[in-house]
Amino acid sequence: MKIIVIGTGYVGLVTGACLADLGHEVTCFDTDANKIARLKNGEMPIYEPGLEALVLAEVAAKRLGFASGALPIQADTRAVFVAVGTPPSALDHSADLSSVFAVAESIGRASLGPLAVIVKSTVPVGTGEAVERILREVRPELEFDVVSNPEFLREGSALADFHAPDRIVVGTGSPRGRDTLAEIYRPLTDGGAPLVFTERASAEMIKYAANAFLAAKIAFINEIADLCEAADADIEEVSLGVGLDRRIGAAFLRPGPGFGGSCFPKDTEALLATAQSHGVQLRLVESTVAANDGRKRAMGRRVIQAMGGVRGRTLAVLGVTFKAGTDDMRQAPSLPILAALRAAGARLRIFDPEGMGQARAVLPDADYADSAYSCLDGADAALLVTDWPEFAALDLSRVAERMRGDVFVDLRNLFPPDALRAAGLRPFGIGRRSRLAVPQPVRGRAVEDLRQGVAPGPLSPPSSLPSSPASAPASPPVPAGALPEPRPGDLPPLALVAAAKAAKAGLNGHAG
After folding, report:
1. Domain end position, chosen among 198, 228, 258
2. What pTM, to 2 d.p., does this model score?
3. Cα separations (Å) of 6 from 43, 117, 368?
4. Rounded CA gap, 355 and 390, in Å?
5. What's the mean pLDDT in 20-37?
6. Which end of the chain is more exposed for a tag (fewer CB within 10 A), N or C?
7. Catalytic annotation on 18?
8. 326 and 265, same structural domain?
């Protein structure tokens, strides 16, 4: 099928190259003539693993081309994908749809026959209706099928996500539009990819709802990590135990400095703006946005506390992109963190495997190193912000030797604290245990004493419990600070457990 993809940013370029890989004849169009000239010369405007090789291969196979200037719609063009940016509005953080609407008008003027106009950009509910209205106003004599086909590509694994998607969502009420999209994606659906047909508004909502849910999951585990630190639990163990629940899943349960990038911050705020326009309050999403903003600010204070002050001290910053596998600095957690440290007087030295070019543009006052080890040379402390795989391979003994100080702030829990200690470094992670002595359980009268502010005395079994048989061997003494083995008197009676389960089933309708 002959297809045009408008926009050669992250979504457009990946989509165009992957559609060509499915066997379609694709032209990627952009109004930025310089970007198109670079693409024709084999230069990629973004970093995405495997993308450059795929683009070059499809261009060589003559299935992928690039164009600027006049929109190259021909009589046999059957589909146009709209993949232009929808940045947040400066007024109310809603999605700025000016580029989408301008493209719709251009498509209408250039079209020569029936056409499927497929909105790949992330847009609020009702955008497809507005695009259809523009097309019909410009060319009332032509037939257009406006389809919502949201993308679910993760930066760093976009090619795999396209070729092995969890689902392909197609929102349209037009049978012809559904047939066109089914034909486009048949190589994927024949391989087992689920194709989900919905109404257009539902497809537009699916994208925002999915991203808001994942953002909330990140904000939740970050708050639980804070509680783990206060309660002397370990967030890595908690995340494992929670994530093994099939109803929850392990994805997005890794604590860190907060979410960033081009999707979650923008989409959660756009969803809130959409809800407000419909008179609906999304308290959970509001809390997610607020918690994430506070998280980023708190990370700067965490580093300052770990170092005991940063003024005049050199901080080696490992990674600044919002996640590994990309050069994207948009809404990266590193930006407010490093701004706070800079304001506190720290000297910043930065290394990122792929983000150095973009980092220099937004952090011009920092120093830059050409490797992780040279970044660490003479540093008073190390700050790991992005969990690039090559950082995980660092020789920690060598890291300690290169540094002047011994503070290692690991905002991704990339290294086990014991490994850092063994190398002579002082670890400061996220939600890690401080390994304090575990208090003995409090029972019976001691609970009432605590409520009255009386210090509890030595623990003794409740008087109602039968004493141990005389023949039973005496329990060995418990070392100081260790958790004693539980005794029957420490555990709730089975009848009480059964009653609790019955009450839960009565209240919730099920016991699971």
Report:
1. 198
2. 0.81
3. 18, 11, 36
4. 14
5. 97
6. C
7. no
8. no
Q: Which of 266, 215, 263 is nearest to 95 (CA)?
A: 266
In a domain, 89, yes or no: yes
Identify which of 435, 405, 196, 186 has the alpha carbon closest to the alpha carbon of residue 309: 405
What is the share, in percent, of the chain residues with pLDDT greater than 70?
85
Those residues with Cβ within 8 angstroms of residue 286's Cβ, 6 or more apart along the chain or in another chain: 272
The total number of structural domains in the chain stands at 3
- Residue tagged 């507005």 (tokens): 130
Question: Which one from 18, 28, 228, 263 is the annotated catalytic residue?
Answer: 263
The percent of residues above 90 in pLDDT, for the chain, comes to 82
Q: Which helix (H) or strand (E) holds 384?
A: strand 381-384
DSSP string, 23-81: T-EEEEE-S-HHHHHHHHTT--SS--TTHHHHHHHHHHTTSEEEE-SS----TT--EEE
Q: Is 327 in the same domain as 415?
A: yes
One-letter identity of residue 326: T
Q: Which helix (H) or strand (E) holds 139?
A: none
| CATH number (domain holding residue 62) | 3.40.50.720
Residues across the chain: 512
**Residues 76-107: tens digit of each pLDDT:** 999 999 999 999 887 778 899 999 999 999 99
**Residue 89 CB neighbours (<10 A):** 15
In a domain, 51, yes or no: yes
The closest of 355, 314, 313, 353 to 334, measured between CA atoms, is 355
Residue among 28, 112, 30, 13 at smallest CA distance from 69: 30
Rounded Cα–Cα distance for residues 281 and 81 (Å): 32
Q: How far apart are the first and last CA of the chain?
A: 50
Residues 321/386, Cβ–Cβ less than 8 Å: yes
CB 292 within 8 A of CB 219: yes
